[in-house]
């Protein structure tokens, strides 16, 4: 039986990263995001077909995330060397080009397992997206089949709803009224 993550402290992690500039390597831990919101997303593999559409869309919208005090971190079970090669491959050759956030390498598959997105028999992650608040509490998760990409618009909608601090009905958007508990 799967364990509930939403409403609990997000599972801690430390992973090596390939910077979005395609040149640098680093390390990242959950604690590095203390005081900020984090959109943590998992994708199955580098050099695939659906993944670059999501990763580049998130990168293209990075300035909007920053305005919401939010960082973005992508994770797969590939190595930092594969991430770097993919970032340095032009978009017209199934590459990513420069990104505005790092890609983390979960070679041990521990982080994907901790977040409940690892397909054990394949050794890759499902498409999982998690929103973690500035105190490290996991506030939102969505996990879907690897054939279907996620929506940046929906990620923004949910992030803004969580940051609004009110009760948000279905399809709530920034500027809409909150529900009043009776």
From TrEMBL:
Pfam families, per the entry: AhpC-TSA
Provide the alphabetized UniProt keywords: Antioxidant, Disulfide bond, Oxidoreductase, Peroxidase, Redox-active center
List, alphabetically, the SUPFAM superfamilies matched: Thioredoxin-like
Gene3D superfamilies per the record? Glutaredoxin (3.40.30.10)
Q: Which InterPro entries match?
A: AhpC/TSA, Peroxiredoxin, Peroxiredoxin_AhpC-typ, Thioredoxin-like_sf, Thioredoxin_domain
Q: Which GO terms describe its cellular component?
A: cytosol
Gene Ontology biological process terms from the UniProt entry: cell redox homeostasis; cellular response to stress; hydrogen peroxide catabolic process; response to oxidative stress
Q: Which residues form the active site?
A: 51
Q: Which family does it belong to?
A: Belongs to the peroxiredoxin family. AhpC/Prx1 subfamily.
Protein name per the record: Thioredoxin peroxidase
């Amino acid at each position: 039986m799967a364990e509930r993550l939403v409403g609990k402290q997000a599972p801690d992690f430390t992973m090596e990263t390939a910077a979005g500039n395609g040149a640098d390597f680093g390390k990242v831990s959950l604690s590095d995001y203390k005081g900020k919101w984090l959109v943590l997303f998992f994708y199955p593999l580098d050099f695939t077909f659906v993944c670059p559409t999501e990763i580049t869309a998130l990168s293209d919208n990075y300035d909007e995330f920053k305005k919401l005090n939010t960082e973005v971190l992508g994770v797969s079970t590939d190595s930092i060397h594969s991430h770097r090669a993919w970032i340095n491959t032009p978009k017209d050759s199934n590459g990513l080009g420069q990104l505005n956030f790092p890609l983390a390498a979960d070679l041990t598959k521990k982080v994907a397992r901790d977040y409940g997105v690892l397909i054990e028999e394949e050794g890759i992650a499902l498409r999982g997206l998690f929103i973690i608040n500035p105190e490290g509490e996991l506030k939102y998760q969505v996990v879907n089949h690897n054939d279907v990409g996620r929506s940046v618009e929906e990620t923004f909608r949910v992030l803004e709803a969580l940051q609004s601090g009110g009760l948000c009905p279905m399809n709530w958007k920034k500027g809409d009224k909150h529900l009043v508990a009776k």
